[in-house]
Design goal:
This protein is of the alpha/beta class. It has 2 domains: 154 residues, P-loop containing nucleotide triphosphate hydrolases (Rossmann fold); 118 residues, Zinc Finger, Delta Prime, domain 3 (Up-down Bundle), CATH 1.20.272. It contains 15 helices and 5 strands. It has a 5-stranded parallel beta sheet with strand order 2-3-4-1-5, with helices on both faces. Strand 3, helix 5 and strand 4 form a beta-alpha-beta unit. Helix 7 packs across helix 8.
Amino acid sequence: MDLTAKLSPERADFLRRLKNGTCSHAFIVEGAKGSGKRDFALWCASALLCESHAHAPCGVCRSCQKAAAGHHPDLHLYGEGEKAITVGEVREIIRETGMVPVDGERIVFVLSHAERMQAPAQNALLKVFEEPPAGVVIFLLTEARRALLPTVRSRGQSITLSALSDAELERTLRIRQPRLGADELSAAVRASHGSLGEAMDFLSKDATQNRIKAREWLYAAFGSDKYRLVSLVSMPKYKREQAIAQTDAFLRLLFDLLLIKTGARAVLLSPEDAEELGGRATKRALAAMCEMTMESRERLEANGNVTAVMTNLASALWSAAN
């Protein structure tokens, strides 16, 4: 059985190289924000440190679980915060590459936000990146490979991450948020287009609350009580950023309803909401509501009075829906 069949091309290729002994000691992992660079590097670390060489990464041994959580004694993480990795930290990395592994045969280093490193820090890293001690593997994670010095770029194997498959994204989210309900998980996967960052943003507390409020807006707009819609949309004392985020959440639900009206599957709405709201809304009404909401968002971006913009939006939505 081919164990790489369900993996992304990047993970499958890494595993094949590891199995046949052609795995590099230095990697430059490039991907957009939210593409899962850190998760990819930790997955590779699990494979490198796994106690089951024949089935690495097994995902169940002590080493795999520690590496996946970023807590393995032979896994060293740098650049996790907002500050760039410094020359002093690079010197620390060089010192640690000379240590003996604690639990296994390898030591793995993951350096996040490598594009933020200044030239002196990159130059200090160059020697160990080019010729690390035996058993040392280094991953540089970056949103922009071109921001690295040519001498650094030329000494690492480049990996550009593609979007995660739905199965991979679901598996990663289950690890990140084991208490996540099946409906929430499914919606996050559908809404994020293979981006782990987008999925995590989707599941954040603020985004979840905005979707709940947006759903209330929809039911009020297609209901029988105009005052309820006005109170929901215009009564809260939104700060500008909050109002923009809330209109964005409402727009996404409107687009979801438009998808339903064309016969497509809902991305965000539950089957029950899709059936109920889809029966009340017309394509014309939804298109008008989308346009009104986008215009209101533009006014908010242009520093329009928040209360006035939201009050006018509520009246316009009611007129379009009824």
